[in-house]
Amino acid sequence: MDKDLTSSPLERQNILNNRYALEKLQEHLGLGGTFYDGEWLFTKHQLVEIFGVSGSTIEKYLASHNAELSANGYIVLRGSKLRAFKALIGGTVIDYGTKTSILGVFNFRAMLNLAMVLVESDRARVIRSRILDIVLDVMAERVGGHTKYINQRDCDYLPAAYQEFNYRKEFTNALGDYVEMGKAKYGIYTNKVYQIVFREKAQEYRQILKLSNRENPRDTMYTEVLKAIASVENGLAAEIKAAAERLNRKLRPPEVDNICDEADNNPFLKPIIEDARIKMASRDLGFRDALHHQLEAYIQSVPESDFERFLGEASRSLEEQLSDPEILAVFKRLKDR
Asked: Which of 131, 146, 255, 332 maximizes the CB count within 10 A of its CB?
């Protein structure tokens, strides 16, 4: 989908939270600035020259986007910090809207943030285009060319997938042993589980992520989503078995539907399900450019910690994880439980 950075705070923050993209942008854009206290800083006067706009235009955006710019690195220097900064740039500051005792400055991240919202500047428009290109390049480079299975780079994915597989067997065994229905019940109640957790049937999920019929949807699901599915499946299996034993017969479909409805409204499951929805909706939009319409209300910006988790040094491909003796030891412990 098209990304209009000028109108989407979410898209802006997803880029600004990606330190790997910021490092590459700083390397390639070459916009200058003054190196102070471990980072590059820009005065408003410097940004006037970079973007080719007036000082009053910069001030306008500082007023309209103050909370966002401040959260991303716009600060006001005072006292000793201001004196030290002045010393670096020769002791003279030409700026707009400041007193001599204070000076507002943008770090590189805040400067990019301004470039993303500054509609009056042709130079900012060119920078926005470069930002989007470089972000795509960084994502492709760090995940090996595609993001469909970026979920598997999480070091917690394999143990979660193994546990979910075991709970899945408990669920299908309960359907087989205690539900009076043909083989269609496995697909029908798998969809019930998916709808409880993330409001989509399997086919809808496939379409959103563009999965082929040969691809297993669960192979693309994040750790938190798999844990939520496992919790629901385990609970349903126990409730189905208990109800059948209490009635001393197999359950009919309407009775199983009632159990599923109760699970959908279970307050004990609500926190883990809501967390799974937030993770799925936010990460799929941020990493896979995939929008889950049923979960739009749960979309948030992808936090910096998630970029570390899926793109950082600790993240590894599935093949690398499977060759790790420590990961294999975890599987052995899970199997021996």
From this structure: 131
Token pair recorded at residue 93: 């500051």
Question: E strand or H helix at 107, and its extent?
Answer: strand 102-107
Note whether 126 and 113 are within 8 A (CB).
Answer: no
The per-residue pLDDT string of the chain (337 residues; one tens digit each, 9 = 90 and over) reads 557 899 999 999 999 999 999 999 999 998 989 999 899 999 999 999 999 999 999 999 999 999 999 999 999 999 999 989 888 887 656 555 455 688 999 999 999 999 999 999 999 999 999 999 999 999 888 887 788 999 999 988 988 999 999 999 999 999 999 999 999 999 999 999 999 999 999 999 999 999 999 999 999 999 999 999 999 999 999 999 999 999 999 999 999 999 999 999 999 999 999 999 999 999 999 999 999 999 999 999 999 999 999 998 777 665 666 566 665 565 555 455 4
With CA atoms as reference, report the closest residue to 93 among 81, 108, 106, 83: 83
Cα separations in angstroms, 48 against 55, 121, 239? 6, 10, 66
Pairing of strands 34-36, 102-107: unpaired
Question: Which three-class secondary structure state does DSSP give residue 38?
Answer: coil
Residue keyed to tokens 């955006």: 61
Distance CA 170, CA 237 (A): 6
Q: Which two tokens stand for residue 321?
A: 């994880």
Q: Is 15 exposed, middle or buried (0-12, 13-18, 19+ CB in 10 A)?
A: buried
139-to-45, 133, 146, 255, 332 alpha-carbon distances in Å: 33, 10, 8, 47, 33
Q: Is the pTM of this model over 0.85?
A: yes
Specify the amino acid at residue 156.
D
Closest CA to 304 of 53, 42, 96, 22: 22
SS3 105: strand
Token pair 């992808």 is found at 302
Amino acid at 164: E
Token representation of residue 10: 């979410």
Burial of 282 (0-12, 13-18, 19+ CB in 10 A): buried
